[in-house]
Amino acid sequence: MNGPWAPDFFCREAQRLGYVARSAFKLLQIQTQFKLIGAGASVLDLGCAPGAWLQVACRSLGPLEKGGTVVGIDLKKMNVPSHHCDSRVKTICADVMNLRKDQARAFSPQGVGFSVVLSDMCPTISGITTKDAALSCELGKRALSLAVGKASNKISSQFLDSFEDDASDNGVLRRGGDIVIKLLESEDTEAFAKFCKPRFRKVSWLRPKATRSCSKEIYLICQGLR
């Protein structure tokens, strides 16, 4: 098989190392550079299928006795991958676009929220660049809305207004927590950084090495929710 989606080094390495998808290497690089997930962390993985980020997140928690939890949510009903995951990982079949913040928060330990939110959600690619970017933007907004809630400090929250689906001011991300959001680059992506900069200690962009050359994917990494 030839072409931009042909198996490459990262596909072969994923198979060799027991990861269910090459996307594992994207989170591995993010984790290496930003060290978001530590021992005892509570992680929410939005759009978790096929499970590669669940695997990396669980490994990042350290030994089982260190504790921590990883909760994956996806439209597809899926089993926890058998490699690199343990009893700290569970999956829930749900539509993130219709999930209320209080429902998502209830999945966290003691219902107090998560220390890390990951969103590798991506729309079904149509090949129409503007359409795909717009759908990606909607998914990214949804992840942000769940994570930060109304977050009305410092600048207007109009960016997320259409996603305020319940009465709670609080999102599922705990104070000091981090979020990673995949987006397809467009003229709208900078709006995400503008929204996040007053709300987080540090905001960064990353295009992981495992991203295919033909892809417009880019990751927004926000650290330290204020």
TrEMBL record:
Residue positions of the active site: K182
Ribosomal RNA methyltransferase FtsJ domain location: 19-224
Keyword Magnesium: no
Stretches that traverse the bilayer: none
Keyword presence, rRNA processing: yes
Sample GO molecular function, one term: rRNA (uridine-2'-O-)-methyltransferase activity
Protein name per Swiss-Prot or TrEMBL: rRNA methyltransferase 2, mitochondrial
Organism whose genome encodes this protein: Platanthera zijinensis
